[in-house]
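Standup notes, structure subgroup. Blocker cleared on the glutamic acid input:
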Amino acid sequence: MTEILEQVRVRFAPSPTGHLHVGGARTALFNYLFAKNHDGKFLLRIEDTDRERSEESFVTEINQSLQWLGLNWDEEPLRQSERMEIYLNTATELISTNNAYHCFCEPDELDEKRKTAQQNKKQYKYDKKCRNLEKAEVEIRLKNGDKSAVRFAVPNVGETVVHDLVYGDVQFNNNEIDDFIIVRRNGTPTYQLAVVADDNDMKISHVIRGDDHLSNTPKQLLIFKALAVKPPLYAHLPLIMGQDGKRLSKRHGAVSVAEFQIEGIFPEALLNHLALLGWSPKDDTEFMAIDELIRRFKIKDVSKRSAIFDYKKLIWLNGQHLSSKSAEELLPIVSTDWGITLDTEIDDVYLKKVLELVKARAKTREELINFGKYFFEDPDSYDEKGRNKHWNDNSVNSNVRQLVKKLEELNSFREEKIEEVLRSTAETLGIKAAELIHPVRLALTGFSVSPSLFEIMELLGKELSVRRIKSALNKLP
Ligand code: GLU
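Run returned:
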């Protein structure tokens, strides 16, 4: 079952009735990883048969989100709305082989029966009233213009087994499967029919999708069987939950890919977190770039336990991906906010050093920008929490003044020297080094957190460091 002999062809099949959410993006990613891991093809299919709920703007957004994530598809995407005839022909074929039939039951009549079943606390199933109509009668009614839906004739006995690559074998009794509709009374094909016709035409080898579709799979397998074609293999992915164990939704925070993009999350980080939703490489590795994900991804390592979307982990991963970027990659991200043009008067070496320093600490784009700003301009204010905590009375001023004196005497303004001076000054004053570090950080950066203070000071240089500290001494507490 796990040996793959034919060419792998998988598809992501979103319905453009909303934004591309975390769940859909995870499905797309797992398909992509599986395809690339097997030198196969990753295809896109837009399931837009529901004309009322589908919107062109969502198609555009889904495409953009996939491209932003780097999940580029092979071949021309398929659009279901352009293939209506094909589905209807498939339905006709199924009718001609007695695997489907016209159902003339009126909606009101069916509603009545549904209600009765509910009242009797029974699960409603169509009573197959039209399944055995005489051919001649059907012809006459169709000629008369009687409206009909087309239903699939599910075998009355036996069972359908889904050999799922994640869930294992899942059995469904055929007599519990409703004679489901494949063409509605208004002449439009349903999802079950279109999916099978498409998966067949696209030569899909593996269907990888959310486990909310597991119950659709026996129906699709039955259609494949009726058409006498080999079905694809199936893998259903576990549900995604929020940290409270409830199904992930807006309440938990951002859920659409576009929102994460606006928030400044890097696509690599989002992909990395999505990959870990239900899959793991079977060791503790968490931080992985796309190449490693492709190399290590195995369907058999997907778990059926529901996965938890963890915003904190996403931010952590974002920081990891941020620090793995080169100064050249980061420069365009920060240049506007730092007020530097790329052929700037600040020399490259300085800029590169700043980026190297800052990227190691920053977890988000915003932090990267904030942590670096003060290398290019004096802080215009001091973080209030930091002020209250670290520079709340004049004793700080006299301590810092002592330090400034020592710093001014330094000939070589190197990280180690600065640290040495700061620690020895603290010792002389009988205070903890932190009691100088925190106020000086505030003076130099305006923030109460930053990358290593001594590195910052070396980079800023003696003149600028001393000037900023003196300026703070005049303004604080
Ligand atoms: N259009 C379906 C959905 O968005 C996908 C169906 C499938 O993958 O078979 O849930």
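Discussed briefly. The longest strand covers residues 41-46.
Next: hand off to the docking folks.
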